[in-house]
Amino acid sequence: MEVVAVAVLAFFALGYLILGGADIGTGMMLPYLGRTDQERRLVLTGIAPFFLANEVWLVATIGLLAGAFPELEAVVVHDLYVPFTLLLFGWVVRDMGLWLRGRVDRRAWRAVADVAVFTASWCMALGWGALIGAVLGGPSLIGMAAAAVLFGLHGLAFSALRLTGVLRRRAELGLPGAAARFLLTSAAVAVIGILAGARLEPAGMAADRASLAFLLPPTLAVLPVLMAAQAWMWWMFRHRVTRPSYL
Amino acid sequence: MDTATLDLARLEFAVTASIHFLFVAFTLGVATLVALVQTRATVTGSPLHWRMTRYWGQLYVINYAVGIVTGLVMELQLGLNWSGLGHFSGNVFGSLLAMETLTAFFLESTFLGLWIFGWGRMNRWLHLGLIWGIVLTAYASAFWIMLSNGFLQNPVGSRVVDGVLRLTDASAVFTNASALVALGHLMGGALLTGGLVFAGVSAWQLRGARHGDEVVYATSLKWGLRVALPALPVTAWMGVTHFDVLEATQPMKSALLGDSAEQALLQGQLAAQYGPDQYVPSSIGTIAAYLMMFCWVLMLLVTLVGLAGRRVRLRLLTLALPLPFIALLAGWVFRETGRQPWVVYGLLKTGDALSPMSPLALRTSLVVFTGLFVFLGVVNYWLLARFARRGPDGSALGVTSADPAASIPHPTF
Fold it and tell me: I need a surface site. Which of A49, A224, B320, B339 has the fewest CB within 10 A?
């Protein structure tokens, strides 16, 4: 049963790092990809329908940590108070920038929102780098630099798949094969996630069997529904961005 | 752990939870009304009801976005500041929180993205199904959260093994009266909130006498009052019923509304049972409970006057807008301060749940997040007022024009 719990936890954590990493990376590259106000709006339209549905993978991961691995949550969250707080702060600011950017039709308002999305995306990437670096036992600066490069490239590859025209060319960096590069950066993100996850040895810290028996069957039962809803969303918004949406 | 740090951590959680809950109450109530209005619009094709859907949907979406981020901070704060709670009760309490994220919030957010960005890009019945999916998953969230909170109030279905709680009877957790009666009370309060938001904002707009949209506001006002009226007795009935639950589970909390002799008697009993400590909670709970009931009476009067259709009703309904929010927060203050000094009633004291952390880290996070939330609360209120004033044509939802400029909302002032 612990093996199933670890597999479900890894599924949601890796799902977040790959999907959420793409929209964090896009936010990090916002001033490079979008040079004008309208261009930046289109760049954000590329992640607009997805970022909320991406971050719930992390919410589910935290929920699973609290429910199926309470001891591990205490270790991870508490021992890494500072990077977690950085991450959380970035998360809040970034979401607000994204959600509220289009709500006031003033240049200054959108500029503030763009700065919020850009800096908070960096804040989140560096927070993740510090966290994963600390878990892997390396110096946190190296972890932060690695996360920034990896998320940045991942976001560019994703944007190259989502945008058109000059924005797409900027995201492609003059290289062909954006889809292949996206798969490559996704794989790199996943490998690092798996290494860090294995280092935490979650199997030994699982909740007792009664709790897992309470939690896991309903989780496995709803999993196909969750994945169907996600698949529907990705299918619905699969087309490249040609005009701005709600954000 | 010194009491100053404990008080700071409690304050931070109280601020986060209170601000978050303002958004939750708005979301639960207003989403239900938006779903009802969209159903009417989809079935009849009436342009009036489509305009209402877009108007209220826009306010709902603005509010939801800020609600999410405050919720994230709240959930992570449990792990950051209250690791003792996770250590002691993670097997049960943590499982319930996990069920909320997996079976409710995950779907709610995915559906919401589809509802917002898929507007006009899919079959309208499918789109209607999405808003109902959002409402039902929001209710499911409330169910799991109240089960978790009810468990802390009255930890049934479990026992302590090696200093850690173990789940022994899941059905007892699901039928916990401390959770279910409170859930009924809260859902009544949320629908009352949604109804009074519809009525209050509409009354405010009608007083301003904007041309052209009067029928949108007059109809919304009627819908709001029709939801508020039945929600009032349900809320009161569940609240009164909950006092019976308290008599059995937390006599000291119900004694907060009794006399001091009763409190002294209970203090003696609890001290004998659990060892010496202060078991009489702060009197702030008493004040909060009476404030909540007072607000309820005012809301009843305003709703009745509103339905009677007197001229004064527009002013009264506008003034009544803060009442449901005050009542809900006061109710939570009563519920949460009234169970102190316990975090898991009878098993774990609040002071023992606190993470070992430096007062500096705590003070920094308190200042940073409280400052951020107050700022976001003000921005949210300002945006809500702005879009409420703009009317249905100011909504950015469902704008499907091919012209990029047309999808940017135009300011009206």
Answer: A224
Structural domain count of chain B:
1
Which among B69, B87, B407 has the least Cβ separation from residue A70? Answer: B87
* Residue B346 domain-assigned (yes or no): yes
Let me know if residue B126 belongs to a domain.
yes
Residue B166: DSSP 8-state? E
Residue A105 at interface with chain B, using a CB cutoff of 8 Å: yes
pLDDT interval class at B292 (50, 70, 90)? very high
CA dist., res. B320 & res. A91, Å (int): 34
Which of A92, A124, A239 is the mutation pick for testing B, counting most B CBs within 10 A? A92
CA end-to-end span of chain B, whole Å?
54
Arithmetic mean of pLDDT over chain A: 90
Interface membership of B62 toward A (CB under 8 Å): yes
Among B384, B399, B396, B389, which Cα is nearest to B60's?
B384
**Angle at B365 (CA atoms; ends B359, B371), nearest 5 degrees:** 130
Q: Taking phi first (over 0 means left), then psi (-120 to 50 degrees means alpha), and beta for anything else, what does residue A91 get?
A: alpha
> Which of A16, A61, A64 shows the shortest CA–CA distance to A186?
A16
In a domain, B267, yes or no: no
Largest CA distance in chain B: 74
Domain boundaries defined on chain A: 2-236
Range of the domain at B231: 3-250+281-401
- Closest C-alpha among B149, B156, B157, B154 to residue B185: B149
Asked if B143 and B130 touch (Cβ cutoff 8 Å), the reply is no
pLDDT value at residue B404 = 43
- A226's CB contacts (< 8 A; 6+ apart) are B102, B106, B107, B110
CB within 8 Å of chain A, chain B residues 376-405: 376, 379, 383, 386-387, 396-397, 399, 402, 404
Measured CA to CA in angstroms, residue A188 lies from A50, A65, B68 at distances of: 21, 23, 30
